[in-house]
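Take a look at the protein record below with the fold in mind.
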Amino acid sequence: MTNAIPSPSSSPIPPAEGAGIELTADAYPVGSRYANEDLRPVPLVERRWTTYNFVALWIGMAHCIPSWTLASGLVALGMDWKQAVLTIALANVLVLFPMLLTGHAGPKYGIPFPVLARASFGIRGANLPAMVRAAVACCWFGIQTWIGGQGIFVLLGKIFGGWADAGKIGGYPWTLWLCFVIFWALELALIYRGMDALRRFENWAAPFVLVGAVVLLIWIANKAGGFGPLLHEPSRVGWGAGFWKVFFPGLMGMIGFWSTLSLNIPDFTRFGKGQRAQVWGQTLGLPTTMTAFALMSVLVTAGSEKVYGAAIWDPVELAGKTDSVFGLLFALVTVFVATISVNIAANVVSPAYDLANLAPKVINFRTGAIITGVVGVLVMPWKLTSTPELYIFTWLGVVGGLLGTVAGILIADYWIIRRTVLHLVDLYVAGGRYWYGGGWNWRALVAFAVGGVLAVGGSYSTLDAKGDKAGPFPIDGLIPFLKPLADYGWAVGLGASLLVYVVLMAGERARTAVGT
């Protein structure tokens, strides 16, 4: 049995020019099984994130250990520092565009990502992209929490000594498990307080972490008397055919790093004061921060090579070289703040909303956050990070391909099919415009399947230095004739799904344009 479509009197409040849209209290279908307080449009008076809030959000998320080591991964593949920084800068400029396009619905309608996905996938079908995004986020949450726990373990071990010699449980010292559990609990305690607490945390965490990175740079430069020969070391791949073989997989991997946020960025922009705040905040925050952070990581590593005779890419390991207790404590707090800021914002907010979308009457935002934390432990992140090549390159490549496919459908539906016009009430009730067939839009499912197969069907593994297969996929690719597309997974997935969806929805376009 389906609910009746609300009458015209239950319409959104007409917005002022440039303002957002909201529902009147009597228009919001509180009794619907597809609605709860966490999924409802954010009231206009509560949309108060400014440009600075979005800049601070991105600074807080970009300044983390995995993003610090992205440049090192590219250098390990043969690039010099200039090529690595160029690749990361270009990747973040490219991923910024889908961020801004999907983020547009946030300030305008105040809705989170899974509700936006209902317009294209259907009210029930939206659970498919939401669960794909949630699964990725849960894995990332576990990985980041493990990395943060390791950082605290290393630095506390330097301060107190003997931590690494503690009795082992499951192959790791119990003191490492303790750091992991404490860090995990603190993250969930913060997010349990809600999005406004996250905004306040990011506001001061961003400048603190930035200062920490600059302090590390100044410290190593002072010890090195310069940044060493790494800045002058020539590229092992040159600028010819060898470079392009590394560049495109590297570029897609770097895009894959933030492809998660390119989907669920409405979870944050829904709190924005307007489009100007989210556009300028993201434009000033993402590409500039990631490029600067990559440059700092290379410069610091260059200095470490001159001082210690070997390049130390891990900032925690490098910070542990200091003999100053104050320096170690400062590094400890910086690692803690940096990791917790990115992990909560990037990997808890989204699955919390996604899980709430799965069963709105049973799961709210806080319950979803707790589930995310539990799943993040159950995926055993200590095993996911045991092989860095698999974790960074295979993981990011496949994830980027799948999430790029979803992004293509969202962008096509919101910008091309609907021209940014949504009917809010129908996003929360059965039988409305976005119900399609039983709550599923088969056109979005077909576009997702086609784009997904093209994006990741050719996924392959390479051989390591010993000649062994370094990855879970066949050397010739899962589907051999698609192997050439695997290095461009994110772009292929986004482009293919966008095109297929637009073609399949051609018959719907005229109807949605007139709002029938």
Summary: The longest helix spans residues 127-160. The chain has a mean pLDDT of 81. Strands lie at 12-13, 22-23, 168-169, 172-173, 462-463, 469-470. Residues 49-388 form a domain with the Hydantoin permease fold (CATH 1.10.4160.10).
